[in-house]
Amino acid sequence: MSAAPPLGVADSLTREAIEHWLRETDETRLQELWAAADETRRRYVGDAVHLRGLVEISNYCVRGCTYCGIRAGNRGVERYRIPEDVLLECAHKTVEFGYGTLVLQSGEDYGITGEWMTRALRRIRSETAVSAITLSLGERPDEELAAWREAGADRYLLRFETSDESLYRRIHPDLPGRVSDRMSILRRLQELGYEAGTGIMVGIPGQTYASIADDIEIFRGMDMDMIGIGPYLPHPATPLGQEFARRTAEGDWPDDQAANTELATCRVLALTRLARPDSNLPATTALSLADKAGGRVHGLQRGGNVVMPNVTPPEQRELYEIYPEKAAVHETAEAVNAGIRQLLASLGRTVGAGAGGRGAA
Ligand code: SAM
Fold this sequence. Notes:
Blueprint: H1 15-22, H2 27-45, E1 48-58, H3 84-96, E2 101-106, H4 114-127, E3 132-136, H5 142-150, E4 155-157, H6 165-171, H7 182-191, E5 195-202, H8 209-222, E6 226-231, H9 239-250, H10 262-275, H11 285-290, H12 295-301, E7 306-307, H13 314-317, H14 333-346, E8 350-351
Helix pairs in contact: 1-8, 2-10, 3-4, 4-5, 8-10
Bound molecules: S-adenosylmethionine.
S-adenosylmethionine (SAM) binds next to loops.
């Protein structure tokens, strides 16, 4: 094998190096990548790990994303929307646990109306001491995004999932009469004064390493405050999950297919840390599921500086199954909190204070 191209930070990391390192399998060489990502993380964002309390407020969804277990077409899902008072209890719990940010995530659910969300945000702001509120509610109309910002939301997460346009169209069908353009929504969110976050899945059937190199180049040019990177985890009750199973059974994978493993995801995470040294990068739940023993630790040692402990009440949490076997489904929010603090202490990392916006090392 030819010599590995050098690892640079920000603009000195070349496209050639990114592509090379995405395919690197030699364990000794990979240690260089992990060490460079960890050192860059320490230098630019410090040892603090920011904890964000995640509440999955609804599993209704109008979309037909072929990868996602809560897609509209999955009739096997029992649907729920969290009542306002339960949401407030979750917000109080987030403060009690000392998490700097409350993250509200859901399917694209218009049963959560603009007004409902605005009222809930105002109540969270006036009745709790939550430092920052992040929303991740899908491709909602401009007026709602503006109203929610006004009502107290600080950040919005919307992954572009893959920059391969034809793959994106295949896995994320448009709603009738509305072309999905997540890049323009992200720009709009920034104009509205949100801190914006994006991200991708790694190992989507049909996704190549070359296209992931494009994704990382886009991260480099995009000025996002947060970038979430997780492996694609096949859900058996989805069209893409079924395609994944068939391709695996038949060995029918395209050339240069990116793997959806923990290792492949860590390579993307580490390279993203080098390309965007000051971003907030979570050690995602999906990564911790791809390797239950090491995923979260590796995520934190290979570029990550954020963890999103789940504070959704267990009865709703087990119905929010975007991929199978979610971590900690049977654990209480208290147990998750204790486990994460213990893990961080064992890694010599501290818990971030305050809201943990970008550059808050
Ligand atoms: N509806 C909102 C949206 O689409 O942005 C927020 C919720 S959505 C379930 C959050 C993220 O889950 C998606 O951006 C996607 O990357 C991830 N996701 C969904 N299904 C997945 C799967 N099978 N494997 C890995 N990640 C998945």
